[in-house]
Amino acid sequence: MKAKPMNTQGKKLSELLKKSGSKLKRGSADPVVNRLVIDSRRVTPGSLFFALPGLRHDGSSFVDEALNRGAVGVVSKTPRRFGNSKAVFIQSDDPRVTLAKVARRYFGKPDKAVKLIGITGTNGKTTVSYLAKHFLSLDGVKTGCLGTIGYDLVERVLPSFRTTPEAHDLYELLSQMKGFGCERAVMEVSSHGIDQLRVAELRFDVGVFLNLTRDHLDYHGDMESYFGVKRRFLTGELGSEPKKISVNIDDEYGKRLARELAGESIITFGTVPEADLRAEDVEMAPDGTTFTLIRGEKRRLVRSPLIGHYNVSNLLAALSICVAMDLDIDACIKSLDSFGGIPGRMERVQSGQPFEVVVDYAHTGNALEHALTMLREITPGKLKVVFGCGGDRDRGKRSEMTKAATELADYCWATTDNPRSEAQERIFDDMRLGVTDSAKIDFIIDRRRAMELALKSAEKGDCILVAGKGHEPFQEFGDTVVPFDDRKVAIELLELMKLGGKF
Fold it and tell me: Is the separation of the CB atoms in 356 and 348 below 8 Å?
């Protein structure tokens, strides 16, 4: 099928502002808008500039720059004069809401043509989205995927700049999917994306809640606020409630959510007896997992190439999406034989070494605990871990990650993981709060060196987990981004060891 070109023709401002809740405060002109912009540096003649509130900067401070670059209009909460500019001023009580409403109109309401599946939760969003895309594509229907690793529009794949894009970028991506013939789209829905109204106004066919563990409290403040944001996605507070909702009731917050949202549209999954989709008789091996899937009176044997109890939960979540979309569950289960895995999620690195090397994105205490617990069950030798904690993020989770690592691994190397603008020694100081007296841990600033020490310490039957970065091909230091891919670095180090006769 030949892709239909996306409609990039400008639209009249009056048309875009219908039912947007905003008010025209200055100017009588009705200019043609040919671009929606939130960054004044990206304004070109004909742009409509949205002055959004921000954590570090307020968009209102950049209105003059936007006007000088040719903006035909400005949407802002703060009234102001434009001097001699002929640009139109639109006042909005919430410019983010206006951005979402305007973007939906500008890009032709693509969510009416593309069935949307939104997945939210602290851990597992990427894995579930990859599994769901795999299943949803089995019947030949083109299915896109937007998330942490990238934006897969089927006909093209773009690098991801954030898990959930800003509203105007998101609607543009969905519009491109529609043009490429996509009828379904799976997307990761982050808490920031919910709170900042990036997914406002979108009509979701299925909404999925996976779990809630400590993360992003530098932004949300406390767990109750964090939960409240996640809940908003599933209750229709952002526009409309998903037609079907799938909830993990093995998770305490999931149980609470399922009680609050109880109804015919709710599908529950987990290992507890009351789950609509239930896993029993779980058996793990180094190369995969088997379990019995129970739905009503029907029992099915599932063989998955994914390892770990939490991947059983992720698979149940993906299968619950298939139930919600009325897909053939047996065909989905059978197709797991051809599932290619997820980059940087329990990804094995092999270069002929007599021990296991696994790269994983685990970057919270809970995720690291699950990863190490699972690997312990299938590792005959010693279990060792290289991990770090990100800078400019929730400081409280650093000690939790160290505690999980030192309690569950035989030896640990704490190192850098995107320190950003923070001094690494300060991050280490926070991490040291989780070290127990008997812990075996070294603090090594150079991540490559930490990985080298871990790999050189490994013996036959051991397992080295390199955690935190997963698929990321970079490190962030201040305003600098440098190439660094755990998987590539591990291969390079293993090849050097092989040349040196280490195995």
Answer: yes
Q: Cα torsion for 52, 57, 61, 66, to the nearest 10°?
A: -60
8 Å CB contact between 486 and 470: yes
Query: What strand order describes the sheet that includes 88-91?
Result: 23-26, 88-91, 73-76, 47-50, 35-37
CA distance 436 to 414: 14
**CA 250/CA 271 separation, integer angstroms:** 7
User: Could you tell me which of 250, 4, 48 has the C-alpha nearest to residue 168?
Assistant: 48
Query: Going by DSSP bridges, is the β-strand pair 73-76/88-91 parallel, antiparallel, or unpaired?
Result: parallel
Structure tokens at 273: 């007896």
Residues 435 and 453 in one domain: yes
Q: Which residues of the chain have pLDDT under 50?
A: 1-3, 5
CA dist 307 and 289 (Å) reads 6
Separation CA 133–CA 148 (nearest Å) = 14
Structural domain containing residue 53: 11-95
Q: Residue 100 to residues 20, 106, 117, 168, 192: CA-CA distances in angstroms?
A: 9, 10, 18, 7, 15
Q: Are residues 427 and 334 in the same domain?
A: no
Residue 346 DSSP label: S
Of residues 494, 471, 495, the one with CA closest to residue 484: 471
Instruction: Output the pLDDT for position 79.
Output: 74
Residue 329: which residues within 8 A CB-CB, separation 6 or more? 293, 295, 300, 319, 322, 323
159 and 307 assigned to the same domain? yes
Q: What is the pLDDT of residue 86?
A: 83
